[in-house]
Design goal:
single chain; 60s Ribosomal Protein L30, Chain: A; 2 helices; 7 strands; globular; about 25% strand; alpha+beta; two-stranded antiparallel sheet
């Protein structure tokens, strides 16, 4: 029996080749455009979704920021700053879309390996803000908390990618 797949097969993401981040490490990166949003009617993970490119762009940036590290299994703090002329969705919808993009997921037509964490229920502290700007982009900061977590003050969110200790 032969099976033929229609359309392209989504890239599940790379296998990690380095250990998970340590507690109190953080990653920070900026992505052009608007973030993916939570769509309750049609998953943005589905390649047929009209805003699927936002999902792919964030996953690509997060994979680069993780630099081959395995997903983290502990609590996560997520800080997001959206810089845009105007928003086409609400801040909670963007936060939900970002959280869904950074974990693993599967459905009958796609499977995605976890990038930052296994499940978005690991996000125990989050903030999302909006600042008017000429060009659309957003900054994501992820802090890998220890089991005795407490919110960590966000460092100045700048350009580029960095991994550093929250204690530094």
């Amino acid at each position: 029996m032969r099976f033929r797949l229609k359309g392209s097969i989504p890239d599940p993401g790379p296998l990690p080749f380095r250990p998970s981040p340590e507690p109190n490490d953080r990653i920070r990166f900026q992505v052009s455009g608007l973030p993916p949003d939570k769509d309750l009617h049609f998953s943005i993970r589905n390649p047929k979704h009209r805003r699927h490119c936002r999902f792919k762009e964030l996953r690509g940036a997060a994979i680069a920021a993780m630099a081959g590290r395995a997903r983290y299994s502990g609590p996560i703090q997520l800080n997001v700053e959206i810089l845009a002329r105007e928003l086409d969705r609400s801040l909670p919808e963007y936060l939900g879309g970002i959280m869904d993009t950074l974990d693993g997921s599967h459905a009958p037509s796609f499977t995605y390996l976890p990038v930052v964490y296994q499940d978005d229920c690991q996000v125990v502290s989050a903030s999302v803000g909006y600042e008017p700007a000429q060009d659309d982009s957003y900054v994501v900061e992820i802090i890998f908390l220890d089991e005795e977590w407490r919110p960590v003050p966000s460092k100045a969110l700048g350009d580029g990618i960095s991994i550093e200790s929250a204690d530094a």
